[in-house]
Amino acid sequence: MKRVCVTGAGGYIASWVVKLLLSKGYMVHGTVRDPCDEKKNGHLKKLEDAEERLQLFKADLLDYEDLCAAFAGCNGVLHIASPVPGRHVPNPQVELLDPAILGTQNVLNACLKTKVEKVVVVSSGSAVLLNPEWPANQEMDESCWTDIEYAKSIEQWYAVSKTIAEIEALEYAKRDDLTVITVCPALVIGPMLQSTINSTSLLLLSYMKAIRTDNSERPLVDVRDLSEAILLVFENPESKGRYICSACSYRTREFVAKMKSIFTEKSGRALLNSKKLLDLGWNYRPLEESIVDTVKNFEEAGLLEKGKPFPSTLRF
Ligand SMILES: NC(=O)c1ccc[n+]([C@@H]2O[C@H](COP(=O)([O-])OP(=O)(O)OC[C@H]3O[C@@H](n4cnc5c(N)ncnc54)[C@H](OP(=O)(O)O)[C@@H]3O)[C@@H](O)[C@H]2O)c1
Protein backbone atom coordinates (compact mmCIF):
# COMPACT_ATOMS: atom_id res chain seq x y z
CA MET A 1 0.00 0.00 0.00
CA LYS A 2 1.33 3.47 -0.87
CA ARG A 3 2.33 5.71 2.01
CA VAL A 4 2.37 9.47 1.47
CA CYS A 5 3.17 12.40 3.75
CA VAL A 6 1.27 15.70 3.49
CA THR A 7 2.95 18.74 5.07
CA GLY A 8 0.75 21.24 6.90
CA ALA A 9 -2.03 18.62 6.93
CA GLY A 10 -4.50 20.73 8.94
CA GLY A 11 -4.53 23.63 6.43
CA TYR A 12 -7.35 24.44 4.00
CA ILE A 13 -5.96 22.77 0.87
CA ALA A 14 -4.00 20.03 2.67
CA SER A 15 -7.11 18.85 4.56
CA TRP A 16 -8.87 18.15 1.26
CA VAL A 17 -5.76 16.37 -0.04
CA VAL A 18 -5.64 14.19 3.10
CA LYS A 19 -9.35 13.38 2.67
CA LEU A 20 -8.80 12.43 -0.99
CA LEU A 21 -5.77 10.25 -0.17
CA LEU A 22 -7.71 8.40 2.54
CA SER A 23 -10.63 7.85 0.16
CA LYS A 24 -8.19 6.29 -2.35
CA GLY A 25 -6.81 3.83 0.20
CA TYR A 26 -3.46 5.51 0.94
CA MET A 27 -1.66 5.29 4.28
CA VAL A 28 -1.25 8.97 5.15
CA HIS A 29 1.28 10.75 7.32
CA GLY A 30 0.43 14.38 8.08
CA THR A 31 2.73 17.00 9.57
CA VAL A 32 1.17 19.61 11.85
CA ARG A 33 2.81 22.08 14.20
CA ASP A 34 0.72 20.97 17.16
CA PRO A 35 -1.06 17.60 17.00
CA CYS A 36 -2.86 18.43 20.27
CA ASP A 37 -4.44 21.61 18.87
CA GLU A 38 -7.98 20.29 18.37
CA LYS A 39 -9.24 23.61 17.02
CA LYS A 40 -6.74 23.53 14.16
CA ASN A 41 -6.42 19.81 13.54
CA GLY A 42 -9.40 18.05 15.18
CA HIS A 43 -11.23 17.81 11.83
CA LEU A 44 -8.52 15.53 10.44
CA LYS A 45 -9.20 12.84 13.03
CA LYS A 46 -12.89 12.84 12.03
CA LEU A 47 -12.20 12.10 8.34
CA GLU A 48 -13.40 8.74 7.09
CA ASP A 49 -10.74 6.03 7.64
CA ALA A 50 -8.50 8.48 9.53
CA GLU A 51 -8.43 6.29 12.60
CA GLU A 52 -6.94 3.38 10.65
CA ARG A 53 -4.81 5.16 8.05
CA LEU A 54 -3.86 8.69 9.16
CA GLN A 55 -0.94 9.36 11.47
CA LEU A 56 -0.09 12.90 12.56
CA PHE A 57 3.50 14.03 13.22
CA LYS A 58 4.61 17.18 14.96
CA ALA A 59 6.90 19.11 12.61
CA ASP A 60 7.79 22.72 11.92
CA LEU A 61 9.18 23.34 8.42
CA LEU A 62 12.34 24.70 9.98
CA ASP A 63 12.98 21.44 11.85
CA TYR A 64 14.76 19.02 9.53
CA GLU A 65 14.88 16.12 12.02
CA ASP A 66 11.12 16.27 12.65
CA LEU A 67 10.49 16.26 8.89
CA CYS A 68 12.74 13.18 8.48
CA ALA A 69 10.75 11.37 11.19
CA ALA A 70 7.47 12.22 9.43
CA PHE A 71 8.69 11.13 5.96
CA ALA A 72 10.28 7.82 7.05
CA GLY A 73 8.70 4.93 5.12
CA CYS A 74 6.86 7.19 2.64
CA ASN A 75 7.02 6.80 -1.16
CA GLY A 76 5.90 10.34 -1.70
CA VAL A 77 5.62 13.75 -0.06
CA LEU A 78 3.02 16.39 -0.93
CA HIS A 79 4.58 19.61 0.36
CA ILE A 80 1.69 21.99 0.96
CA ALA A 81 2.66 23.86 4.17
CA SER A 82 3.73 27.47 3.71
CA PRO A 83 2.55 30.66 5.37
CA VAL A 84 -0.32 32.39 3.55
CA PRO A 85 -0.63 35.82 5.14
CA GLY A 86 -3.92 37.65 5.25
CA ARG A 87 -2.58 41.17 5.45
CA HIS A 88 0.59 43.23 5.80
CA VAL A 89 3.50 41.19 7.15
CA PRO A 90 5.76 43.24 9.47
CA ASN A 91 8.78 40.90 9.19
CA PRO A 92 8.64 39.11 5.82
CA GLN A 93 12.01 37.41 6.25
CA VAL A 94 10.98 35.56 9.39
CA GLU A 95 7.24 35.23 8.80
CA LEU A 96 7.28 34.31 5.10
CA LEU A 97 10.60 33.88 3.34
CA ASP A 98 12.32 31.56 5.83
CA PRO A 99 9.46 29.08 6.28
CA ALA A 100 8.72 29.04 2.52
CA ILE A 101 12.29 28.86 1.20
CA LEU A 102 14.31 27.20 3.98
CA GLY A 103 11.23 25.09 4.76
CA THR A 104 11.11 23.76 1.17
CA GLN A 105 14.87 23.08 1.23
CA ASN A 106 14.43 21.16 4.50
CA VAL A 107 11.56 19.17 3.02
CA LEU A 108 13.62 18.24 -0.05
CA ASN A 109 16.72 17.35 2.02
CA ALA A 110 14.56 15.22 4.32
CA CYS A 111 13.03 13.51 1.24
CA LEU A 112 16.51 12.60 -0.05
CA LYS A 113 17.58 11.33 3.37
CA THR A 114 14.48 9.14 3.79
CA LYS A 115 14.56 7.92 0.14
CA VAL A 116 11.22 9.39 -0.87
CA GLU A 117 10.73 8.84 -4.63
CA LYS A 118 8.54 11.74 -5.68
CA VAL A 119 7.64 15.13 -4.20
CA VAL A 120 4.88 17.48 -5.25
CA VAL A 121 5.53 21.05 -4.10
CA VAL A 122 2.50 23.31 -4.02
CA SER A 123 3.70 26.68 -5.30
CA SER A 124 1.27 29.42 -6.33
CA GLY A 125 -0.14 31.39 -9.22
CA SER A 126 1.67 34.28 -7.56
CA ALA A 127 4.93 32.65 -8.74
CA VAL A 128 3.61 33.10 -12.30
CA LEU A 129 1.56 36.28 -12.42
CA LEU A 130 3.86 39.17 -11.45
CA ASN A 131 5.72 39.49 -14.73
CA PRO A 132 5.54 42.97 -16.27
CA GLU A 133 7.42 41.76 -19.38
CA TRP A 134 4.71 39.26 -20.32
CA PRO A 135 2.71 40.46 -23.34
CA ALA A 136 -0.66 41.93 -22.32
CA ASN A 137 -3.67 39.78 -23.26
CA GLN A 138 -1.57 36.66 -23.67
CA GLU A 139 -2.45 33.77 -21.35
CA MET A 140 0.33 32.91 -18.95
CA ASP A 141 1.59 29.36 -19.19
CA GLU A 142 4.30 27.48 -17.28
CA SER A 143 7.07 29.40 -19.06
CA CYS A 144 6.00 32.60 -17.31
CA TRP A 145 7.68 33.39 -13.97
CA THR A 146 7.12 36.16 -11.50
CA ASP A 147 9.95 38.69 -11.71
CA ILE A 148 11.43 38.47 -8.22
CA GLU A 149 13.01 41.94 -8.28
CA TYR A 150 9.74 43.46 -9.47
CA ALA A 151 7.79 41.61 -6.75
CA LYS A 152 10.26 42.87 -4.12
CA SER A 153 9.94 46.43 -5.43
CA ILE A 154 6.17 46.32 -4.84
CA GLU A 155 6.61 44.45 -1.53
CA GLN A 156 4.71 41.37 -2.65
CA TRP A 157 6.60 39.19 -0.17
CA TYR A 158 4.26 36.21 -0.48
CA ALA A 159 4.93 36.10 -4.24
CA VAL A 160 8.67 36.46 -3.59
CA SER A 161 8.60 33.59 -1.09
CA LYS A 162 6.68 31.24 -3.38
CA THR A 163 8.72 32.08 -6.51
CA ILE A 164 12.12 31.53 -4.87
CA ALA A 165 10.93 28.34 -3.15
CA GLU A 166 9.61 26.96 -6.45
CA ILE A 167 12.70 27.85 -8.49
CA GLU A 168 14.91 26.22 -5.90
CA ALA A 169 12.72 23.10 -5.75
CA LEU A 170 12.95 22.60 -9.53
CA GLU A 171 16.73 23.26 -9.46
CA TYR A 172 17.05 20.70 -6.67
CA ALA A 173 15.44 18.07 -8.88
CA LYS A 174 18.01 18.70 -11.64
CA ARG A 175 20.91 18.26 -9.17
CA ASP A 176 19.72 15.42 -7.00
CA ASP A 177 18.10 12.07 -7.48
CA LEU A 178 14.58 13.13 -6.57
CA THR A 179 11.54 13.69 -8.77
CA VAL A 180 10.04 17.09 -7.98
CA ILE A 181 6.82 18.37 -9.54
CA THR A 182 5.42 21.81 -8.77
CA VAL A 183 1.77 22.91 -8.97
CA CYS A 184 0.84 26.59 -9.21
CA PRO A 185 -2.78 27.03 -8.12
CA ALA A 186 -4.91 30.07 -8.85
CA LEU A 187 -6.85 31.62 -5.95
CA VAL A 188 -8.49 28.65 -4.26
CA ILE A 189 -12.22 28.71 -3.48
CA GLY A 190 -14.66 26.10 -2.20
CA PRO A 191 -15.80 24.70 1.15
CA MET A 192 -13.50 24.38 4.15
CA LEU A 193 -13.02 21.19 6.15
CA GLN A 194 -11.13 22.95 8.97
CA SER A 195 -12.86 25.01 11.65
CA THR A 196 -10.60 28.08 11.59
CA ILE A 197 -10.95 30.26 8.51
CA ASN A 198 -7.88 30.47 6.25
CA SER A 199 -6.65 33.68 4.63
CA THR A 200 -8.02 33.15 1.13
CA SER A 201 -11.49 32.05 2.33
CA LEU A 202 -11.46 35.22 4.44
CA LEU A 203 -10.57 37.19 1.31
CA LEU A 204 -13.50 35.64 -0.56
CA LEU A 205 -15.79 36.37 2.36
CA SER A 206 -14.69 40.00 2.37
CA TYR A 207 -15.80 40.29 -1.28
CA MET A 208 -19.11 38.58 -0.45
CA LYS A 209 -19.71 41.04 2.37
CA ALA A 210 -18.54 43.98 0.25
CA ILE A 211 -15.81 44.76 2.79
CA ARG A 212 -13.43 44.69 -0.17
CA THR A 213 -14.57 46.30 -3.39
CA ASP A 214 -11.46 46.43 -5.58
CA ASN A 215 -11.70 45.08 -9.11
CA SER A 216 -8.64 42.84 -9.36
CA GLU A 217 -8.41 40.10 -11.96
CA ARG A 218 -8.41 36.78 -10.07
CA PRO A 219 -7.86 33.37 -11.60
CA LEU A 220 -9.79 30.77 -9.57
CA VAL A 221 -9.82 27.05 -8.86
CA ASP A 222 -11.97 24.88 -6.59
CA VAL A 223 -10.12 23.29 -3.66
CA ARG A 224 -11.50 19.83 -4.54
CA ASP A 225 -10.31 20.10 -8.15
CA LEU A 226 -6.92 21.29 -6.96
CA SER A 227 -6.65 18.27 -4.65
CA GLU A 228 -7.37 16.01 -7.63
CA ALA A 229 -4.67 17.83 -9.62
CA ILE A 230 -2.10 17.37 -6.85
CA LEU A 231 -2.84 13.65 -6.70
CA LEU A 232 -2.89 13.38 -10.50
CA VAL A 233 0.61 14.81 -10.92
CA PHE A 234 1.81 12.64 -8.03
CA GLU A 235 0.40 9.40 -9.43
CA ASN A 236 1.02 9.97 -13.14
CA PRO A 237 4.51 8.75 -14.10
CA GLU A 238 4.47 11.12 -17.10
CA SER A 239 4.20 14.30 -15.00
CA LYS A 240 7.17 16.64 -15.32
CA GLY A 241 8.21 20.07 -14.06
CA ARG A 242 5.66 22.74 -13.39
CA TYR A 243 1.83 22.77 -13.71
CA ILE A 244 -0.53 25.72 -13.57
CA CYS A 245 -3.84 24.76 -11.95
CA SER A 246 -6.56 27.27 -12.78
CA ALA A 247 -10.17 26.95 -13.94
CA CYS A 248 -11.13 30.49 -15.00
CA SER A 249 -10.48 34.16 -14.29
CA TYR A 250 -12.80 36.93 -13.21
CA ARG A 251 -12.54 40.54 -12.21
CA THR A 252 -13.73 40.55 -8.62
CA ARG A 253 -16.71 42.82 -9.26
CA GLU A 254 -17.76 40.60 -12.13
CA PHE A 255 -17.31 37.57 -9.85
CA VAL A 256 -19.47 39.11 -7.13
CA ALA A 257 -22.13 39.95 -9.72
CA LYS A 258 -21.98 36.34 -10.89
CA MET A 259 -22.40 35.16 -7.31
CA LYS A 260 -25.54 37.24 -7.06
CA SER A 261 -27.18 35.55 -9.99
CA ILE A 262 -25.65 32.10 -9.34
CA PHE A 263 -25.08 31.72 -13.03
CA THR A 264 -25.33 28.43 -14.82
CA GLU A 265 -23.20 28.59 -17.92
CA LYS A 266 -19.55 27.54 -17.86
CA SER A 267 -17.80 30.78 -18.64
CA GLY A 268 -14.95 33.02 -17.58
CA ARG A 269 -11.72 33.92 -19.30
CA ALA A 270 -8.42 32.14 -18.97
CA LEU A 271 -5.63 34.33 -17.58
CA LEU A 272 -3.58 31.37 -16.41
CA ASN A 273 -3.39 28.55 -18.92
CA SER A 274 -3.82 24.99 -17.49
CA LYS A 275 -3.57 23.15 -20.83
CA LYS A 276 -0.56 21.10 -19.63
CA LEU A 277 -2.54 19.80 -16.63
CA LEU A 278 -5.72 19.25 -18.69
CA ASP A 279 -3.65 17.21 -21.17
CA LEU A 280 -2.51 15.04 -18.25
CA GLY A 281 -6.18 14.21 -17.54
CA TRP A 282 -7.31 16.90 -15.06
CA ASN A 283 -10.80 18.40 -15.19
CA TYR A 284 -12.62 21.01 -13.15
CA ARG A 285 -16.16 21.65 -11.98
CA PRO A 286 -18.34 24.61 -13.07
CA LEU A 287 -17.73 27.71 -10.97
CA GLU A 288 -21.42 27.73 -10.01
CA GLU A 289 -20.90 24.54 -7.98
CA SER A 290 -17.91 26.06 -6.15
CA ILE A 291 -19.90 29.18 -5.29
CA VAL A 292 -22.98 27.31 -4.07
CA ASP A 293 -20.90 24.94 -1.92
CA THR A 294 -18.74 27.75 -0.52
CA VAL A 295 -21.75 29.85 0.47
CA LYS A 296 -23.40 26.82 2.11
CA ASN A 297 -20.17 26.12 4.00
CA PHE A 298 -19.81 29.76 5.11
CA GLU A 299 -23.45 29.76 6.30
CA GLU A 300 -22.96 26.54 8.27
CA ALA A 301 -19.81 27.99 9.84
CA GLY A 302 -21.73 31.14 10.85
CA LEU A 303 -19.60 33.33 8.58
CA LEU A 304 -22.54 34.41 6.40
CA GLU A 305 -26.08 35.07 7.58
CA LYS A 306 -28.19 31.94 7.31
CA GLY A 307 -31.76 31.77 6.09
CA LYS A 308 -31.61 34.99 4.07
CA PRO A 309 -31.66 34.65 0.30
CA PHE A 310 -28.03 34.51 -0.77
CA PRO A 311 -27.84 37.84 -2.67
CA SER A 312 -29.06 39.74 0.39
CA THR A 313 -25.75 38.97 2.07
CA LEU A 314 -24.06 40.95 -0.68
CA ARG A 315 -23.97 44.65 -1.32
CA PHE A 316 -22.75 45.52 -4.79
N1 LIG B 1 -5.39 29.32 -0.78
C1 LIG B 1 -4.98 29.73 -1.95
O1 LIG B 1 -5.70 30.47 -2.65
C2 LIG B 1 -3.64 29.31 -2.47
C3 LIG B 1 -3.34 29.63 -3.81
C4 LIG B 1 -2.12 29.23 -4.32
C5 LIG B 1 -1.24 28.54 -3.54
N2 LIG B 1 -1.54 28.23 -2.25
C6 LIG B 1 -0.56 27.48 -1.48
O2 LIG B 1 -1.20 26.34 -0.92
C7 LIG B 1 -0.59 25.99 0.32
C8 LIG B 1 -1.64 25.87 1.40
O3 LIG B 1 -2.36 27.07 1.52
P1 LIG B 1 -3.78 27.17 2.24
O4 LIG B 1 -4.58 28.13 1.50
O5 LIG B 1 -4.30 25.81 2.49
O6 LIG B 1 -3.37 27.90 3.59
P2 LIG B 1 -3.51 27.50 5.12
O7 LIG B 1 -4.82 26.89 5.41
O8 LIG B 1 -3.09 28.70 5.89
O9 LIG B 1 -2.41 26.38 5.28
C9 LIG B 1 -1.04 26.69 5.43
C10 LIG B 1 -0.41 25.56 6.23
O10 LIG B 1 1.00 25.81 6.33
C11 LIG B 1 1.37 25.56 7.66
N3 LIG B 1 2.58 26.28 8.02
C12 LIG B 1 2.83 27.60 7.89
N4 LIG B 1 4.06 27.88 8.37
C13 LIG B 1 4.58 26.70 8.81
C14 LIG B 1 5.81 26.33 9.42
N5 LIG B 1 6.77 27.20 9.69
N6 LIG B 1 5.98 25.02 9.75
C15 LIG B 1 5.02 24.11 9.52
N7 LIG B 1 3.84 24.40 8.95
C16 LIG B 1 3.63 25.68 8.60
C17 LIG B 1 0.18 25.99 8.50
O11 LIG B 1 0.27 25.38 9.76
P3 LIG B 1 -0.47 25.99 11.05
O12 LIG B 1 -1.88 25.55 10.93
O13 LIG B 1 0.24 25.39 12.20
O14 LIG B 1 -0.32 27.49 10.98
C18 LIG B 1 -0.97 25.46 7.64
O15 LIG B 1 -1.21 24.11 7.91
C19 LIG B 1 0.47 27.05 0.58
O16 LIG B 1 1.71 26.54 0.13
C20 LIG B 1 0.03 28.22 -0.30
O17 LIG B 1 1.11 29.03 -0.68
C21 LIG B 1 -2.72 28.62 -1.70
TrEMBL record:
<dbReference type="InterPro" id="IPR036291">
    <property type="entry name" value="NAD(P)-bd_dom_sf"/>
</dbReference>
<dbReference type="InterPro" id="IPR050425">
    <property type="entry name" value="NAD(P)_dehydrat-like"/>
</dbReference>
<protein>
    <recommendedName>
        <fullName>Dihydroflavonol 4-reductase</fullName>
        <ecNumber>1.1.1.219</ecNumber>
        <ecNumber>1.1.1.234</ecNumber>
    </recommendedName>
</protein>
<keyword id="KW-0560">Oxidoreductase</keyword>
<feature type="coiled-coil region">
    <location>
        <begin position="40"/>
        <end position="67"/>
    </location>
</feature>
<dbReference type="Pfam" id="PF01370">
    <property type="entry name" value="Epimerase"/>
</dbReference>
<dbReference type="GO" id="GO:0009813">
    <property type="term" value="P:flavonoid biosynthetic process"/>
</dbReference>
<comment type="pathway">
    <text>Pigment biosynthesis; anthocyanin biosynthesis.</text>
</comment>
<comment type="function">
    <text>Bifunctional enzyme involved in flavonoid metabolism.</text>
</comment>
<keyword id="KW-0175">Coiled coil</keyword>
<keyword id="KW-0521">NADP</keyword>
<dbReference type="GO" id="GO:0045552">
    <property type="term" value="F:dihydroflavanol 4-reductase activity"/>
</dbReference>
<dbReference type="InterPro" id="IPR001509">
    <property type="entry name" value="Epimerase_deHydtase"/>
</dbReference>
<keyword id="KW-0284">Flavonoid biosynthesis</keyword>
<feature type="domain" description="NAD-dependent epimerase/dehydratase">
    <location>
        <begin position="4"/>
        <end position="240"/>
    </location>
</feature>
<dbReference type="GO" id="GO:0047890">
    <property type="term" value="F:flavanone 4-reductase activity"/>
</dbReference>
<comment type="similarity">
    <text>Belongs to the NAD(P)-dependent epimerase/dehydratase family. Dihydroflavonol-4-reductase subfamily.</text>
</comment>
